[in-house]
Amino acid sequence: MTTVQRRRLSALTGERGAALLTAMIIVTLVASLAAGMVWQQYRAVQTEAADRARAQSGWILVGALDWARRILLEDAKGDQEKPPATDHLGEVWAVPLAESRLSTFLAADRTVGADDGPEAFLSGSIVDLQSRYNLRAVLGGDKVAPVERQTLERLCQSAQLPSSLASVIIDRLRGSFGSAPREAADGKPGSPAVPPDGSVQPINLSQLTWLGIPADAVERLRPFVVLLPRPTAVNLNTAPREVVAAVIDKASLADAERIVQERSRTRLRTLEQAKRLLPPDTDLSPDRVGVASSFFEVTGRLRLEERLLEQRSIIERRGLEMRVIARYRASQLLDQPLGGRS
């Protein structure tokens, strides 16, 4: 083979190699673009499915809230038909909804089986917020009444916290509001306001941490105290014995236990009925204790596959009007803690 022939063969081989390399590059680019397009389409489908599931879950929880409002409305109608108005733990609203498959609620007729519905489970409860001591009681007037300070000290002790924490909570709460807070014109707590001293006014119990109260202390106090938009009386029909003993001056846990035992047999219809269970010199002020409630917390939980969506709503009942004054929603994976409590 001559030198010229060799050169021609080498050039032809190089051209073939370059063509093969170019073809491989083109195939790689096409495959990369195709994979990118498939991934984008997959992400778009996943995003759309997540948005649809979120919207559907939100509407389901709204429906559960409307259901709870209906239950409270029927209870209010019953109180109007048979006065005096009372709220106790033997009523329908106090019975929690155990976790149930959503399809059992959605089945339109008997031809639709429970297995035809989505794999979603709904549960919920209604809690009387006036079963707890309202921290609004320490915000009124130029000075805190001694009985209110003593009540909060007792509750701190019941929560296994130092009684000195009561003074810290009172001082920081009053400092954040600057003066006695006023209810908004529409009755709703609204957004937190910033007073002249620069601190933030909390609108629920969880926000006490903004004032430097330890989160662990807030959680321990949660079964006993609450922060509502306006002052309220503690409902003796629903309050735990620790709250009953704390809010009634000179009452002991044994006295509170008698009230709890009596109401388990028959509801307390008047304060006079409760007074007969206490020492003779006990004073029951209607501003501090009562037998009916206006504020309730509705909790709805929707479990869908590995995710749990929880919504907490505060309802104020004024006559036959059910007003949602606050709503909090939190989402979590089932192996993670749920946050966003009110």
Automatic annotation (TrEMBL):
Membrane spanning stretches: 20-39
Pfam families: T2SSK, T2SSK_1st
Top-rank lineage group of the source organism: Bacteria
InterPro entries: GspK, T2SSK_SAM-like_1st, T2SSK_SAM-like_2nd
Domain called T2SS protein K first SAM-like: residue spans: 131-229
Keywords: Cell inner membrane, Cell membrane, Membrane, Transmembrane, Transmembrane helix, Transport
Compartments in which it is found: Cell inner membrane
Keyword Transport included in the entry's annotation: yes
Domain spans labelled T2SS protein K second SAM-like: 234-279
Family named by the database record: Belongs to the GSP K family.
Name of protein: Type II secretion system protein K
Taxonomic lineage of the native organism: Bacteria, Pseudomonadati, Pseudomonadota, Betaproteobacteria, Burkholderiales
